[in-house]
Design a protein that fits this description.
The chain is an alpha+beta fold and 354 residues long. Helix content is 24%, strand content 21%. The strands form 5 sheets. The chain has an 8-stranded mixed β-sheet. Strands 10-15-12-13 form a 4-stranded antiparallel β-sheet, with no helix packed on it. Bound molecules: 2-oxoglutaric acid and fe (ii) ion.
């Protein structure tokens, strides 16, 4: 990654700005009421009610928030971060031994493109469920389903187990967040749980090496997350930017030690019939420091039909989207993200009812 490779160069309007705006506005929400109450139940109704309000406003106003006192053990986070660093510190040859194949999303790769520009990063993806059931093709008439499985790095030897332990914990957090989001929309707490029975969730280890031309490239180009919810751990380096809804400015999410960054994905946007929006974000790189981030993409079962919930639509507020099949959507995305293509990949607005 020495000379300027045109594959990484963003169009001028998408290049990072030299001045960074680090807003205080991205809410930090304390989840103590659901994690550290004395008798371990949802026992303090007023604290929960307040929490639900905070979650609702954050989803509406930002589509992004951070959580503290989230219940994921700090020691586990440290262990996954250390193991990930060891993994990425290996030679390219070693890492490429578990390169992601055409037939699964799991494994190592360093050639992802976002909006047809190559990202300055390398990643390792690991599925939450093994096997994960998924359609063979994005073709609507093809009913065939296949199984995705994980690839296991030899080194460091602890990585696989640490990832599995970590997934268990962030998954618990994701379910709790979905309950709070459901309540904030006036739904029953467990309204969303059924969608995640055979989930297609996965965890991603993102490594952003120092970049000699950080003013031209991005670690991840502007995008929205396609799934339901993302639970992201970022290290102290920083670089994640979120598009502020009020003025469309790019705002840096300040690293908060031990916090998780949560964002609403496209599926929540559709379920909520646009009450909550999935917000664009991107990652800046820098010329000096490596950066590590670990998103957990909480995604429903492949055969989920994604559409606005009946409870949230009516004559005054009719459904804004045609239903789509999540598994087919995911496969379509996978096929187009892998290579540079001259067409835009599939987006939820393609299902929008005009
Ligand atoms: O590295 C980050 O902070 C965010 C990465 C991201 O947005 C993604 O992987 O979808
Ligand atoms: Fe993202």
């Amino acid at each position: 990654m020495g000379e300027v490779d045109p594959a990484f160069i963003q169009d001028p309007e998408h290049r990072p700005k030299p001045s960074i705006i680090e807003a205080e506005g991205i809410p930090v929400i304390d989840l103590s009421p659901i994690n550290y109450n004395k008798d371990d139940t949802f026992s303090d109704p007023s604290a929960i009610e307040d929490l639900v309000k905070q979650i609702g406003s954050a989803c509406k106003e930002w589509g992004f928030f951070q959580v503290i006192n989230h219940g994921v053990p700090l020691d586990l986070r440290k262990r996954i971060e250390n193991a990930s660093r060891k993994f990425f510190a290996q030679t390219l040859e070693e890492k490429r031994k578990i390169t992601r194949g055409e037939d699964s999303v799991a494994g190592y790769y360093d050639t992802e493109h976002t909006k047809n520009v190559r990202d300055w990063k390398e990643v390792f993806d690991f599925l939450a469920q093994e096997p994960t059931l998924i359609p063979v093709s994005s073709d609507e008439d093809d009913d065939e389903v296949t199984q995705w499985t994980n690839l296991s790095p030899e080194n460091p030897p602890e990585l696989r187990v640490v990832i599995q332990e970590y997934i268990e914990e962030v998954e618990k957090l994701s379910f709790k967040l979905m309950e709070l989001i459901a309540l904030s929309l006036g739904l029953e707490a467990k309204r969303f749980h059924g969608f995640f029975k055979d989930q297609t969730s996965f965890i991603r280890l993102n490594h952003y090496p120092p970049c000699p031309y950080p003013h031209l490239a991005l670690g991840v180009g502007r995008h929205k997350d396609a799934g339901a919810l993302t639970v992201l751990a970022q290290d102290e380096v920083g670089g994640l930017e979120v598009k502020r809804k009020t003025d469309q400015e790019w705002i840096r999410v300040k690293p908060t030690p031990n916090a998780y960054i949560i964002n609403v994905g496209d599926i929540i946007q559709v379920w909520s019939n646009d009450a909550y929006e999935s917000v664009e974000h991107r990652v800046m790189v820098n010329s000096e420091k490596d950066r590590l981030s670990i998103p957990f993409f909480f995604n429903p079962a492949h055969d989920s039909i994604v559409k606005p919930l009946e409870e949230l639509t009516n004559e005054q507020n009719p459904s804004k989207y045609r239903p789509y099949n999540w598994g087919k959507f995911l496969i379509h995305r996978k096929d187009t993200n892998f290579k540079k293509k001259n067409v835009e990949n599939l987006q939820i607005y393609h299902f929008k009812i005009a």
